[in-house]
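Both lines are given unchanged directly below:

***
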Amino acid sequence: MPVMTNVRGKASEARSKLLTTATRLFYTEGIHSVGIDRIVVEAKVTRATLYRHFPGKDDLIVYYLQEADQAIRDQVGAILAKESPALDTLRAIAESIAAGIRSPGFRGCAFLNAAAEYPDPAHPVHQAVLAHREWFSRVITEALANAGDAPAESAARRFVLMRDGAMATGCLSDPEPICETFLQDVEDLLQRHVAVSRGEPG
């Protein structure tokens, strides 16, 4: 999808305001509950301006998820760029997840929340969710493959499941014990992965 720009070639201020407003409202209040009129009013733009940048609400939602996806890719990319040992890389990714859960205003995983509102696998919003999850699973699988000879795919599925559980419950109660449990479970998973790679009992 093309980015609308102004005569100076910079990203349109209106587009930025729309995305910022939509991101805040979609994440804190839910996607279906927030209408176009609400976004237009809070972004202080006209409906015509919105439709110049986004053909419809679904396009705006997909952009919102793509922005969230890119933010996480950048965060993980910074971890991978350090070229630490694979186990330390996985620990750092887990720590970044825990930091997000502990952050003020945390309302769960934006992608799981969106998937719950758009369950049709063929819908563009659901497809955006799947694209993010496939990328994340691939990153974890590759890191685990570098950490030992034990099957990486099953261990990666467990890592993602633990991440999903922590994200889903981290906004329902005190996040601290949730994060502690998540990080300990990740460490147990990594130690088991190393043990199996060495031929020790799993």
About this structure: The chain is about 75% helix and 0% strand. Confidence is low (pLDDT under 50) at residues 1-10. The radius of gyration is 19 Å. Residues 57-81 form the longest helix (25 residues).
